[in-house]
Amino acid sequence: MEFHKICVLGLGYIGLPTASTFATHGLDVVGVDVNAEVVAKLKNGDLHIYEPGLRTLVQAALRSGKLTIQSQPQPADAFVIAVPTPFYEDKRADLRAVISAAEAIVPHLRRGNLVVLESTSPPLTTSGMVRPILEKSGLTAGQDFYLAYSPERVLPGQILRELIDNARVIGGVDRASAEAGRDLYATFVRGDIYLTDATTAEMVKLMENTYRDVNIAIANEFSRLADRFGVDVWEAIELANRHPRVRILRPGPGVGGHCISVDPWFLVEAAPDLARLIRAARQVNDAQPEFVVDLVRRAAGDLRGKRIAALGLAYKPDVDDLRESPAIAVARRLVDAGAQVLAYEPNRPEVRIPPLDLAPSLEQAIAQADLLLLLVAHTPFKALDPRQVASMTSARTAVDAVNVWPPADWEAAGFRLHRLGVGG
Ligand code: SAJ
Questions:
Q1: Which atom belonging to ligand 1 lies closest to the Cα atom of 152?
Q2: Atom 38 of ligand 1: nearest residue by CA position
Q3: Which of 40, 242, 299, 331 is the most buried (most CB within 10 A)?
Q4: Which ligand 1 atom sits closest to the C-alpha of 263?
Q5: Domains 5-191 and 287-419 share a fold
Q6: Percentage above 70 pLDDT, the chain
């Protein structure tokens, strides 16, 4: 099947790179977003999100005339839905954006079109929710138009490369739909493309992120056990990982981001009676910020009035994304416990996250601190020279929740260094 013009609905971390990549590979792409501010910015070549290389890609796509930005979809050969699927307070999937994107397509849907859902969704969303909405057009999926689910699997920070190189799974409501999806993504995907049915593809995506969440949960639980038994979890993990069939991940302040901390709940919601391990893993990871607070309490004594420099607020190293960040959860809890927290996020120095106080520079964050708390292993934090840090602050207590500061160097520079998962 051949595609000339496509509409990509949702211009966030996935939709924008996807739309731009289709455009730089020769398709006419209409990028659609419901947020007027995002549309206005993008029309000027300004980006509302940061991802390495994305600005250059988007600007090239816009300049070529192959990518245009609109607030409404238009008739096209294919429609790709890449809108967010967050969760409500009670952890149920919030599918309102998927529903309204599907509804926005209905008036433009024509015989022979392809619709692909990319947003991470609970099992049966494509066939049970998107399909009936699209069929309000009077057309039937699998008969008059093609309908598929294809999850994105890219790693924030490496999106542009992974979008092209990663293997892709495409599940159709019928075989012809999966094949139509393959023809579309073959425009730029260099990785292998695997075809299956839509619900399997939905499950594959949820299983990938749940697998990672459960594995990080066990690493976090090991950090607590090691702390109790006077063991250095980092040494223990390194030794356990010498086993040819063991690969334990890294403990940390918890699991953040808009994917791994969210997606497992979609399975728990869909089958609460079955997804018991998955729920327990989520609870372990969600409780990890409290464990870090406890570690800080043990290092600092009473937290009330303590001046703490919280270094890093992003959900993981070397990104600017703050969504579901466990570092923010730790900082907030410290404030609740009466500490005076001054945070510094090098990738978002201007950001405001009430009730946290943010410093515009590392120097200002640490100058008056009683304790330094490392929450995210950003490259500039890893590179810090403890002797230089010692000259910038009178603090001599440090807590490393991500295990990147070499203890011997920090101790030689005069710091008492407490590490996550290291019992003493
Ligand atoms: N983390 C740990 N310990 C580790 C690894 C990660 O605590 O050993 C934490 C990170 O600090 C972060 C969270 O887990 O807070 C998630 O980070 P991540 O790098 O594991 O994953 P994401 O959320 O950035 O991207 C994931 C990826 N999925 C998998 O690796 C299975 C990516 O491929 C998906 O496309 C993405 O979710 C998504 O959009 O679903």
A1: 35
A2: 259
A3: 331
A4: 40
A5: yes
A6: 100
Phi first, then psi, for residue 60 (nearest 5°) are -65, -40
CATH code for the structural domain at 287-419: 3.40.50.720
How far apart (Å, rounded) are the C-alpha atoms in residues 343 and 361? 9
pLDDT tens digits, one per residue of 59-102: 999 999 999 999 999 999 999 999 999 889 898 999 999 999 99
Give the binding-site residues of ligand 1, using a 6 Å CB cut-off.
120, 152-156, 208-209, 212, 216, 249-250, 252, 255-257, 259-260, 315-316
CA dist., res. 152 & res. 159, Å (int): 10
Which atom of ligand 1 is least distant from the CA of 154? Answer: 35
What pLDDT shows up at residue 181?
98
Report the alpha-carbon distance of residue 330 to residue 296 in Å, rounded: 10
Full strand arrangement of the beta sheet holding 397-400: 357-358, 340-344, 307-311, 371-374, 397-400, 416-419
Ligand 1 centroid–CA 8 distance in Å is 25
Q: If you measure from the C-alpha of residue 72 to the centroid of ligand 1, how many angstroms do you get, rounded to a whole number?
A: 32
pTM, rounded to two decimals = 0.94
User: Which residue puts its alpha carbon closest to atom 10 of ligand 1?
Assistant: 316
**How many Å separate Cα 349 from the centre of its chain?**
20
pLDDT in tens, 342-369: 999 999 988 999 889 999 999 999 999 9
> What's the rounded Cα separation, in Å, for the pair 420 and 415?
16
Is the separation of the CB atoms in 16 and 163 below 8 Å?
no
Compute, in angstroms, the gap from residue 416 CA to the centroid of ligand 1.
31
List the chain domain ranges.
Answer: 5-191, 287-419
Distance 261 CA to ligand 1 centre (A): 9
Rounded mean pLDDT of the chain? 97
Write the CATH number of the domain with boundaries 5-191: 3.40.50.720
With a cut of 80, say whether residue 282 has pLDDT above it: yes
What pLDDT sits at residue 424? 77
